[in-house]
Amino acid sequence: MPALIPVVPQLTNNLGLNPPIYTETFQLTAAQIRSLNSVPVSLIPAPGTNIAFVPIRAIYILTAGSVVFSGAVTVHLAVGSVATAAIAMGTGSAAEVKVDNAGVTTTDYVASTTGIDAALTIASAADRTGGTGSVLTVIVTYALLDLTNILP
Fold first, then answer.
1. Which of 81, 92, 138, 152 could form a disulfide with 134 if both were Cys (CB 3.0 to 4.6 A apart)?
2. Cβ partners under 8 Å of residue 67, min gap 6
3. 52 lies in a domain?
């Protein structure tokens, strides 16, 4: 299975409130898509102490395989226990492209530190069967927010 984890840039200074923006592309196989509820996939490892991923946009591209999934594939990104809104894809009977511009459901990383120093993962609302030959391409645009001088 090909590695999903890209190289995270070395953070050598406080990114503060003006963090750089990154875009990474990942491909999930039908086997990974089928088990996203019970086995979420880590896209990018935890960035380091007091640093949080801030998902800005996710583009989901589901390519149809030879066998449809047993139900709609509903995916979301998560940073620790802080998740983006669930995006419902189809069953893989036809190609689909969905865009999520909402980002994470909380904007207060100081009050809720569960999204700090946590991996960026993708998960689903339910495991599925079928989907033979389907591929889910995920294009994630995110920032790394260094909260070292901000946290109490």
1. 92
2. 92, 130, 131, 132, 133
3. yes
* CATH number for the domain harbouring residue 137: 2.60.120
Count of domains in the chain? Answer: 1
Residues whose CB falls within 8 Å of the CB of residue 39, separated by 6 or more in sequence, listed in order: 32
Q: Is residue 56 part of a domain?
A: yes
Six-digit token string for 128: 């599925």
User: Which of 135, 129, 124 lies closest to 34, judged by CA?
Assistant: 129
Query: Residue range 101-110: average pLDDT?
Result: 62
pTM above 0.85, yes or no: no
Task: Give the model confidence (pLDDT) of 50-77 as tens digits.
Answer: 888 888 889 999 998 899 999 999 998 8
Range of the domain at 41: 23-146
Q: What's the chain's Rg over C-alpha atoms?
A: 16
